[in-house]
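Translate structure to sequence.
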């Protein structure tokens, strides 16, 4: 989301639940209005810290907003990384300064003053949000939720925006691979892009999937992509080791286990859909899948989605990886795994002491024998335990 606005706009509220993008947008907004090295009297940054809690910071912000510029000119006051927006209520310790701030904004902020507020949790439907929207601009940034279908497209757009801002060029497949690397961990995007820029050197060139694989290993905090790769490769030993490592390195292993199980279920669901799509479309190799997805028209894509095969909307690079994985399994194996993973998810809620063992049994049952070794059932019936 761009922070650019009319030059006369002088009230800004940046909020939502994506603290990284909130901070970036507010910083860019302040830089546009004060320059790279603003005069100390032209910019007043107010932030919570050892000397100021949320109440003190908000009170200082209101006080500064009511104080004219010291030497004339234009003054910008920035309430930075504020944690107290959820405290905007009719009663409570922050009620009075919030009310006074709303009154200041509603009365009209002088043209020689710019107010910038940033931090998570502001409610656009409350008085402050409405006042800022009427007087200036409100920008809300939502963190991608990997549990919601289509989150990859949102992360891909963020990568494109940050790459453009840094003057970095990525091809589509490289962007798709970087989506897999960062997952829902948006703050990683800038760091990974900076590493890639250093890696390709000067003069810069278009970044490829090989570049991403070379310098951006690892996995997002919210999901182990390496685990999903091991499942798709039917490498049961590696999958079990990765699961063990992941659960030992987190403070909430039960939550991490459920996340890993759900992500595995999504992988299996996509591989099953792709197997059905390949059969229906007469595609027998991952490369043909890539070409088909790349050249697919909107109407054709809609037709496949209407048949329940929304996997055709993935990026071509992702489609190739899914096709490679799908070819290692039979349809019966994937269906059985989905049923078993549903039961694991149920166990994660009703009997956490059994959930890890159940998930490990699914991994062994799904990945432990090569395709063609004969039909079998993934050994989990969690609801009956």
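Result:
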């Amino acid at each position: 989301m761009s922070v650019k606005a009319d030059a006369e706009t002088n009230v800004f509220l940046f909020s939502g639940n994506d603290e990284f993008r909130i901070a970036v947008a507010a910083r860019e907004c302040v830089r546009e209005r004060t320059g790279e090295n603003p005069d100390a009297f032209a910019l007043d940054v107010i932030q919570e810290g050892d000397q100021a809690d949320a109440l003190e910071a908000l009170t200082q912000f209101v006080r500064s907003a009511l104080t004219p510029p010291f030497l004339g000119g234009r003054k910008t006051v920035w309430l930075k990384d504020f944690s107290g927006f959820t405290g905007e209520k009719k009663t409570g310790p922050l009620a009075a300064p919030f009310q006074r701030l709303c009154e200041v904004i509603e009365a009209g902020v002088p043209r020689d003053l710019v107010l910038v507020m940033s931090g998570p949790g502001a409610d656009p439907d409350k008085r402050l949000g409405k006042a800022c929207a009427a007087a200036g601009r409100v920008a809300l940034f939502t963190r991608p939720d990997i549990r919601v279908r289509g989150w990859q497209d949102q992360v891909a757009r963020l990568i494109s925006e940050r790459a453009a801002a840094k003057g970095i060029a990525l091809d589509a497949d490289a962007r798709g691979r970087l989506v897999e690397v960062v997952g829902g961990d948006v703050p990683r995007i800038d760091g990974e892009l900076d590493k890639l820029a250093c890696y390709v050197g000067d003069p810069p060139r278009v970044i490829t999937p090989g570049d991403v694989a070379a310098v951006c290993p690892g996995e997002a905090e919210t999901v182990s992509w390496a685990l999903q790769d091991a499942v798709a490769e039917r490498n049961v030993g590696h999958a079990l080791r990765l699961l063990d490592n992941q659960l030992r390195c987190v403070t909430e292993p039960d939550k991490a286990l459920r996340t890993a199980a759900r992500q595995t279920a999504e992988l299996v669901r996509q591989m099953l859909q792709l197997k059905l799509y390949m059969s229906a479309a007469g595609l027998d190799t991952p490369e043909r899948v890539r070409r088909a997805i790349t050249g697919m028209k909107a109407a054709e894509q809609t037709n496949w989605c209407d048949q329940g095969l929304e996997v055709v909307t993935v990026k071509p690079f992702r489609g190739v990886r899914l096709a490679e994985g799908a070819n290692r399994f039979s349809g019966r194996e994937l269906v059985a795994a989905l049923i078993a993973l549903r039961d694991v998810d149920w166990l994660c809620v009703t009997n956490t002491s059994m959930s890890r063992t159940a998930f490990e049994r699914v991994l062994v049952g799904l990945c432990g024998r090569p395709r063609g070794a004969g039909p079998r059932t993934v050994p989990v019936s969690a609801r009956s335990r």
